[in-house]
User: Fold this.
Amino acid sequence: MFQHNAAKHPQFACTKCHTAFLTQASLEDHYRGKPSAIHPKCSRCGKGFYSQSSLTEHHQTAHPTVICCGQKVYEEDLPKHYNQSERHPSCTVCDMAFEDDAAYNAHGATEHPDQRCSSCRRQFATTDELKKHFEVSPNHPTCGKCNLGFFDDTSFLEVGFSKLTNFRLTYMRTA
Assistant:
């Protein structure tokens, strides 16, 4: 009797196209088949659905979007969008891109602190570029004799004092 009922009277039927199936899994496979006007398929993940309203609900929950730079972007595509858009800051060291300056500054401070000027909030590709920045920036003290730039007055005075101390010690030894 069980075999007769299963074969002749399937339990699972598509109410859209009236095709009958023996199992729930077979019915779901039916939805995932070729896309049609009756059974639409998600263009993002390929999952099939009973109706257009089911697909719309899926799209809103499984593939949410945000507005960024005046355009609709899928949340899962945001890193790619940040990388391709000139409106988002990108790290010159590791080629990552960020939503805004705050995220970029946090990245530079934690991932590349040796290449970052925290007082100017600027990131540099190399430590040599950072040293050059200290030399040419009006925001940083520079030695008038050798043009060496320093992060701040304290570091400028520390280096100057240690050179002066070494000079005095050397002078006192030779006398």
Residues 77-163 form one domain.
